[in-house]
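Board notes (copied after class):
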Amino acid sequence: MRCGLILAVISARDLRAIARARLRDAQVFLRAKRFDGAYYLSGYAVELVLKARICRTLKWEGFPQTAKDFEGLQSLKTHNLEILLKLSGIETRVTTKYLDEWSEVIRWNPEKRYQALGQIPPQDVTNMLMCVERLLEVL
């Protein structure tokens, strides 16, 4: 990835596979009426697929995993979906062609995992999952 250094990376293919698995997990949680978990996992799926897209854009085999691997790459060490989308190289396409889906998904952040249970209405979770499903197809 950088200057011939061998870094610990997770492959873009693995990131996509994990993203799909987290979406399936979110769907299971939704059916079980575990709305908070479903919401969190669905946003996490988008984070993972955006990181895979960054690898593709930068022609990297994988995404850094450890603090040492992120040296000099601090802008990539984020969970912020807006920043990750900018770094992915497809921001304009997503924010124009998939604006409705993106507008729903962008409300997610990893801090939701610390939110008191029951704060996210079931319909919001259902909408989020539908938007994530669509975005995972095109990202």
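Comment from the instructor: The chain has one domain: 9-138. The chain is about 60% helix and 5% strand.
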